[in-house]
Amino acid sequence: MAARPRIKDVAEYAGVSPKTVSNVINNYEHVSERTRTAVQEAIDALGYRVNIAGRQLRQGRTGMITLAVPELDVAYFSELARHVMEAAGRHGRTVLIDHTGGKRDRELAALHGFDTQFCDGVILSPLSLLPRDLAARDRRLPLVLLGERPAEGHTDHVGIDNVRAAREATEHLLARGRRRIAVIGGTLRGRQGTDRLRTDGYREALAAAGLPFEADLVVPVDAYHWRDGAEAAARLARDTSPPDALLCLNDNLALGALRALYEAGVRVPADIDVIGFDDIQASRFSVPSLSTVSPDKRETARLAVALLLDRVDDPDSTAEYRDEVVGHRIVVRESSGG
Question: Residue 326 forms beta bridges with which residues?
Answer without folding.
Answer: 160
